């Protein structure tokens, strides 16, 4: 391991953290058979144990919390999307230079919670593109052509970061997005970038027949990428040399920055699989799994190094095994529209507004949904359970 | 053979054989009951093809269990030689043929129903004008539950004489049709597009199947039909209701007049 400065170490293959790829190249981390077996076992247990009780609380997050929020913020800092903007810039370089006439519009499909809208808005700011605001609900229902007046007349560059907010799953909620997509994809509105959430994309692709050959997405975060990112996030604010060790085995989970690119612990590979490569969900699970050292004596022995213990990754919220299909309909509507207000949910769901509110409150108590400004949204903690629930009920899923 | 006495083919009864036969019958009945309770319980917690598959295995497993029990019991009652079996089955056949003709015919049709599978558990079928979901395929009859939650028991014998209409035929794909009867003076292109979007935006829609809008002019007006598939067969009524309610609102918004015909002509 003693490498002389003159010696050239073998250069490891560099991993692009923020790598935008065509949708067909998205590589969801493979689920190991042991992980599948564990998941099936959990499902089987839930299958036989009656869990219709909606009042059952979610696993208490705070009860397990041994680090203060401040310390957790230091150890797992928030993701700075600027690096993703750089990655997007890199992916679009060739298109900007050579392919604008051929493909005037690129679509960036974002996985949930990955700040797709923000990344596109920042990218637009960097390139002086006109940022197109989403239409109002009234404009969508009225198929209001004045929304198209927002586009630059000179056919300059534009960015529409939230295509998912330009339609409603309603008989009169598709006309406006179709009115926009036809000329936009044809290049009549100039060159531009469209951002869309993956669930909305799955629906719009079928409802408006959008070709996916011009769509890019962020590559999944596998164990290797997570290892590099978590090392970076821990290194942002923490100047002490922290060691991340598995609480059961004592083995290192994160390696120092020199080895992070090469060595990937099994824990992180499993985390990547469980989160389907979604980095923000993985970050939350990672954050929730960190524990302070219980044995202070050993802590004193390790002079400069701080040991951070990584407990088992949590399951996330659980949706009770219920035959109430309205739960699935509500979750699906929220995902397809990337969040909706209770009033607009009543326009797209086939049941009354008071029943919708009752369902939302039940789901809120389980930690599956939350109210963000006026919109109800699926929570980070509830996303995987929601996706699994919808998959079990054969609903249309996103591609990731 | 002239002095054939049917009593001669039976094995001399003894207590041990008697207990064994009882145990086989009891065990078979217990297993059948367990399968008939457990499998639907499991199936009802699943969705789509896996639910239908589990439901469809019930009658097959029951038939296998009955045949196994028959094979195990026969040598404990009679000497299973050809000489013994022919007169016994002949006698039984004549007796049952006269006394329980329809019953036996239904039993045989039940075996055919399991092998040919014109209906499976979980299918939506119409027999003799009765429409419902197949809940249980018995040895003699099929139990279907109508949308009004009424159970109907239809003997398998109907297989020989009646057409069986199966709406989903062992798959989760069940086509639903929503009908609209409109005044002929309207913009048909817009109406067709609206009805297509009504189906596309229904939360019950199965995207893996096509959506088709059929337009047909009739002497009294224009008949529109949306043909589309719900995610699960049991959602068919919710799906049709949803499409009807939202299409009516959309059509009203377009200013289309619905066709009203007199219930009694020439009035």
Low-confidence regions of chain A: 1-9, 52-65, 296-303
Q: How large is the count of helical segments of chain B?
A: 7
Tell me the distance between the termini of chain B: 80 Å
Q: Biggest protein-protein interface?
A: A-B, 24 and 28 residues
Counting DSSP E segments of at least 2 residues, the number of strands of chain B comes to: 8
User: Could you give the order of the helices and strands of chain A?
Assistant: EHHHHEHEHEHEHEHEEHHHEHEHEHHEEH
Biggest beta sheet summary of chain B = 5 strands, antiparallel
Helix content of chain B: 40-55%
Mean pLDDT of chain A: 84
Which structural class matches the secondary elements of chain A?
alpha/beta
Mean pLDDT of chain B: 86
Give the tally of β-strands of chain A.
13
Radius of gyration of chain A: 23 Å
Number of structural domains of chain B:
2
Major beta sheet, strand line-up of chain B: 4-3-2-1-5
Order of helices and strands of chain B: HHHHEEEEHEEHEEH
For the termini of chain A, the CA-CA separation is: 40 Å
Helix coverage percent of residues of chain A?
Answer: 40-55%
**Counting H and I runs of at least 4 residues, what is the number of helices of chain A?**
17
- Computed CA radius of gyration of chain B, to the nearest angstrom: 27 Å
What's the SSE blueprint?
The complex is a heterodimer of chains A (400) and B (267).
Chain A: E1 20-22, H1 33-48, H2 61-64, H3 69-75, H4 82-99, E2 105-110, H5 116-126, E3 130-131, H6 137-142, E4 158-160, H7 175-186, E5 192-197, H8 198-207, E6 215-218, H9 223-237, E7 241-246, E8 252-254, H10 257-260, H11 266-274, H12 279-289, E9 290-291, H13 296-301, E10 305-310, H14 325-336, E11 340-341, H15 342-348, H16 353-365, E12 369-372, E13 375-378, H17 380-392
Parallel strand pairs in A: 2-5, 2-6, 3-4, 4-5, 7-10
Antiparallel strand pairs in A: 1-6, 7-8, 9-10, 11-13, 12-13
Chain B: H1 15-43, H2 48-77, H3 82-99, H4 101-116, E1 124-127, E2 130-137, E3 141-145, E4 151-155, H5 158-161, E5 165-166, E6 176-182, H6 188-200, E7 212-218, E8 221-228, H7 236-254
Helix pairs in contact in B: 1-2, 6-7
């Amino acid at each position: 391991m003693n490498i002389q400065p003159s010696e050239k170490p073998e250069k490891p293959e560099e991993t692009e953290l923020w790598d935008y790829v065509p949708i067909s190249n998205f590589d969801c981390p493979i689920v190991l058979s042991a992980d599948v077996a564990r998941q099936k076992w959990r499902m089987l247990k839930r299958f036989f144990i009656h869990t219709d009780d909606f009042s059952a609380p979610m696993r208490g997050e705070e009860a397990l919390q041994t680090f203060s929020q401040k310390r957790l913020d230091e150890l797992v800092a928030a993701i700075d999307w600027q690096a993703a903007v750089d990655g997007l810039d890199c992916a679009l370089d060739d298109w900007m230079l050579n392919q604008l006439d051929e493909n005037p519009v690129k679509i960036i499909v974002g996985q949930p919670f990955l700040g797709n809208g923000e990344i596109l808005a920042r990218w637009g700011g960097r390139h002086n593109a006109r940022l197109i605001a989403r239409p109002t609900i009234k404009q969508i229902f009225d198929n209001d052509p004045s929304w198209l007046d927002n586009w630059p007349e000179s056919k300059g560059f534009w960015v529409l970061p939230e295509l998912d907010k330009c339609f409603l799953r309603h008989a009169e909620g598709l006309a406006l997005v179709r009115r926009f997509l036809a000329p936009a994809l044809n290049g009549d509105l100039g060159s531009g970038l469209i951002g869309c959430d993956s669930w909305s994309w799955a629906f719009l692709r079928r409802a408006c027949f959008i070709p996916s050959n011009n769509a890019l997405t962020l590559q999944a975060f596998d164990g290797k990428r997570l290892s590099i990112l978590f090392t970076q996030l821990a290194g942002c604010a923490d100047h002490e040399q922290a060691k991340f060790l598995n609480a059961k085995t004592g083995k290192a989970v994160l390696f120092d920055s020199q080895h992070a690119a090469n060595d990937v612990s099994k824990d992180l590979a499993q985390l990547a699989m469980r989160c389907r490569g979604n980095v923000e969900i993985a970050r939350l699970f990672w954050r929730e799994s960190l524990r302070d050292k219980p044995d202070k004596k050993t802590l004193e022995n390790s002079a400069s190094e701080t040991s951070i213990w990584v407990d088992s990754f949590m399951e996330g919220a659980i949706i009770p095994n219920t035959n109430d299909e309205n739960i699935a309909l509500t979750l699906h509507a929220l995902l397809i529209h990337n969040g909706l207000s209770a009033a607009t949910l009543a326009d797209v769901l086939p049941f009354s507004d008071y029943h919708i509110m009752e369902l939302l409150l039940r789901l809120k108590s389980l930690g599956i949904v939350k109210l963000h400004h006026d919109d109800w949204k699926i929570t980070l903690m509830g996303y995987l359970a929601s996706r699994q629930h919808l998959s079990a009920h054969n609903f249309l899923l996103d591609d990731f | 053979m002239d002095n054939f006495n049917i009593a001669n083919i039976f094995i001399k009864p003894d207590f041990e054989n008697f207990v064994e036969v009882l145990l086989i019958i009891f065990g078979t009945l217990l297993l059948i009951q367990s399968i008939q309770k457990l499998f639907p319980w499991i199936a009802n917690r699943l969705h789509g093809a896996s639910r239908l598959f589990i439901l469809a295995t019930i009658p097959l497993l029951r038939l296998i269990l009955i045949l196994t029990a028959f094979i195990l019991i026969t040598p404990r009652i009679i000497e299973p030689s050809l000489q013994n079996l022919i007169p016994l089955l002949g006698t039984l056949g004549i007796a049952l043929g006269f006394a329980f003709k329809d019953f036996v015919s239904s039993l045989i049709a039940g075996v055919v129903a399991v092998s040919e599978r014109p209906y499976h558990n979980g299918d939506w079928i119409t027999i003799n004008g009765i429409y419902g979901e197949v809940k249980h395929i018995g040895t003699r009859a099929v139990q279907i539950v109508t949308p009004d939650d009424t159970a109907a028991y239809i003997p398998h014998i109907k297989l020989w004489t009646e057409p069986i209409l199966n709406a989903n035929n062992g798959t989760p794909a069940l086509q639903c049709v929503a009908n609209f009867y409109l005044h002929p003076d309207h913009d048909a292109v817009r109406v067709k597009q609206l009805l297509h979007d009504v189906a596309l935006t229904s939360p019950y829609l199965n995207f893996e199947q096509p959506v088709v809008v059929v337009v047909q002019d009739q002497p009294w007006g224009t008949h529109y039909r949306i043909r589309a598939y719900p995610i699960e067969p049991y959602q068919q009524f919710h799906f049709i209701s949803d499409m009807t309610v939202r299409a009516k609102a959309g059509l009203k918004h377009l200013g289309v007049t619905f066709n009203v015909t007199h219930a009694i002509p020439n009035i």
